[in-house]
Automatic annotation (TrEMBL):
Broad enzyme group: transferase
Species name: Secundilactobacillus silagei JCM 19001
Keywords from the named record: ATP-binding, Cytoplasm, Kinase, Magnesium, Metal-binding, Nucleotide-binding, Transferase
Name assigned to this protein: Acetate kinase
Phylogenetic classification of the source organism: Bacteria, Bacillati, Bacillota, Bacilli, Lactobacillales
NCBIfam families: ackA (TIGR00016)
Amino acid sequence: MTKILLINAGSSSLKWQLVNMPAEHVIASGQVERLNLPGTIVKVEVGGKKSKEVVETLDEMTAIDRVLKRLITVGGVQSLDEVEAVGHRVVAGGTVFKGPVKLTPSRIDQLKKLSELAPLHNPLEVKCIELLAQKLSGVPQYAVFDSAYFHGLPEKTAIYGIPYEWTKKYQIRRYGEHGISHQYLANRAAEMLAKPLNELNLITMHLGSGASITAVKNGQPYDTSMGLTPVTGVMMGTRSGDVDPTLVPYLMKRLDLETPEVVLQELNASSGLLGVSGVSSDMRDLHEAAKHNKRAKLALEMFVNQVVKLVGAYYTEIGGADALVFAGGIGEKDPEIRQAIIDGLSILGIKIDTTLNEAGDTGPLQTEDSRAQILLIPTNEELAMARGVQQVMDKDK
């Protein structure tokens, strides 16, 4: 058995698991929510026992320190020396990394060079890798890439309407993100529907602070909402989602800027739910604020509308769907948003059972006469990551 520590650092949360492989036994797990926001939430589970505490604001680095300390204090391990490998979720692998890899100094340098493809994520993930290399000296580290799942997108959905020479010369394409999650969700949906994956059309929705939607046709990814970088698609916690590209030079002129970096930073870190509402990037805060704040209410309505628009487009694009899958922090925990999204898709004959939706249990949520099934599936990126790490370790034996 090999104890693998899995680190999944996102834009607003850090999830982790300590897993015994290849048995896939979770020894301990946890999540740090509301990173860089007041009232950071720290959750830990060991042996079915759960704990939760609210602490002062944690950033990604202090969160990792807390995770390592909790591993020992909650009984996950007696000593950090028991950790034999570390697996990291890395968002952007570009065309360089098409599957999981063992990390070396040269590969870490390559990850740094890919930061422009995921400016909120890759630099953070490299920091996590370097920090854990210090904290767990000598322990091999591995990267599992979100973008790898989308390497097989059909060219007609993968590339943009720009000069084809640019596409090839500069490797400009729709890389997509959350691929680890979307792949897990597709496989899990097939299990729940008791059908071969290659016979299914699915629309998987990973809705959280980062949000993306993927169309799966005959079991394979066919289209996805994120593009060259994770700023595109539906609006998110702090990311704008799709905007007219001429917005960048337009704002550069209005703000008297010589380079686009400031505008791009704002589109990534100060836009989306936060930018529209002026209140928060966290959906929980917005639900409360929307009772008396018109901008918070508008942000919620925009988010729902953009999800509905994309799901409707994908439903047509793949010729109908056997199931719609909700996952991610919002998709799994926010029945109000789920209800609003499905209500917006009523023209397609897709209907949600209000009682099942409010209960929020894993499994089907649709009514008996719904044209497509609606599944709530808690994503498990960490399990998919562990399998990817194990795959590389087995090859290296």
